[in-house]
Automatic annotation (TrEMBL):
<dbReference type="Pfam" id="PF01037">
    <property type="entry name" value="AsnC_trans_reg"/>
</dbReference>
<dbReference type="GO" id="GO:0005829">
    <property type="term" value="C:cytosol"/>
</dbReference>
<dbReference type="Pfam" id="PF13404">
    <property type="entry name" value="HTH_AsnC-type"/>
</dbReference>
<feature type="domain" description="HTH asnC-type">
    <location>
        <begin position="179"/>
        <end position="235"/>
    </location>
</feature>
<dbReference type="InterPro" id="IPR036388">
    <property type="entry name" value="WH-like_DNA-bd_sf"/>
</dbReference>
<dbReference type="GO" id="GO:0043565">
    <property type="term" value="F:sequence-specific DNA binding"/>
</dbReference>
<dbReference type="GO" id="GO:0043200">
    <property type="term" value="P:response to amino acid"/>
</dbReference>
<dbReference type="InterPro" id="IPR036390">
    <property type="entry name" value="WH_DNA-bd_sf"/>
</dbReference>
<keyword id="KW-0805">Transcription regulation</keyword>
<dbReference type="InterPro" id="IPR019887">
    <property type="entry name" value="Tscrpt_reg_AsnC/Lrp_C"/>
</dbReference>
<dbReference type="InterPro" id="IPR019888">
    <property type="entry name" value="Tscrpt_reg_AsnC-like"/>
</dbReference>
<dbReference type="InterPro" id="IPR011008">
    <property type="entry name" value="Dimeric_a/b-barrel"/>
</dbReference>
<dbReference type="InterPro" id="IPR000485">
    <property type="entry name" value="AsnC-type_HTH_dom"/>
</dbReference>
<keyword id="KW-0238">DNA-binding</keyword>
<protein>
    <submittedName>
        <fullName>AsnC family transcriptional regulator</fullName>
    </submittedName>
</protein>
<keyword id="KW-0804">Transcription</keyword>
Amino acid sequence: MSRSAMDDVDLGLVQALRVDGRAQFRTIAEVLEVSENTVARRYRRLRAEAGLRVIGSLDSTRLGRVQWTIRLSCTPDAAGAVAKALAAREDTHYVHLLSAGTEVSCTVSTGGVDEQALLLHKLPRTSRIVAMSAHLLLSTFRVPDTGPEPTVLTDEQIAVLRPDPIDIDVAAPPLHDGDRAMLRALNRDGRAPYAELAAATGWSESTVRRRLELLRRTGILRIGLDIPAAALGFGVEARLWMRVEPGAAVAVGSALAAHREISFAALTTGATNLVAAVVCRDTVDLSRYLTERLPELSGIIALETAPVIRTVKRAGTPQL
């Protein structure tokens, strides 16, 4: 399904689910001024034809965990197998094949900085991995998403859909086995009904509802929309690694986060201290972004670009 095949109802539904992936179809229908049956039918079609998925994911930083971005250079015959092995792990997300299929990048969550050595030992062991680097994510300017979103809804419509804000002053509650079971179910389907979540956890539906709302309010649980950028007309994705003057890194990262083309931006350790993901309509747009928009940002010393050849895993289960 292509961007040209979507009408304003489809695009409005996509944008509504970006605002709140668990918004009731009745509420979305009222905002879009269509029937609830129409919203449900369009949702099923976008899932089947455009690859749209709503995903519940854990924000491990709220639980004191840290994240690393990993780069692996492989021989051409090994990169695909390495990417699949990484995608199968529960502690990885955003696994990409890059640079003509000879490089793999991913994000890994660990319990702390001191677990880096353990992390590296757990990576796939093969002589066909010729180089590897790990960069600690220090702060995030824009959390990962699928890039530019439709702009069909008005501010007033968005306000109706917007969930309660995250309350960072509320301490993150400890996770129980039931929470983990619920998170696994939501990772498969972020819109899983309460009855299904109750069956997965062994809790009552009312307990599931209260616990889900608490995890969302404290920022532990994120309900996000996952849809291939190509389905929205953005056919070219790339990872950017930038070496930026230390005193300018925060300003550059904040500016990147405001760029429509940027779907992720973070400050990292390492020789390149900013990592970002860019989503463009085609190679012409990517060229224009790299040569016209980025040079406007003062403080960038060096830039490395790696096109995304294939996404093996996003925030949820592997795209195998």
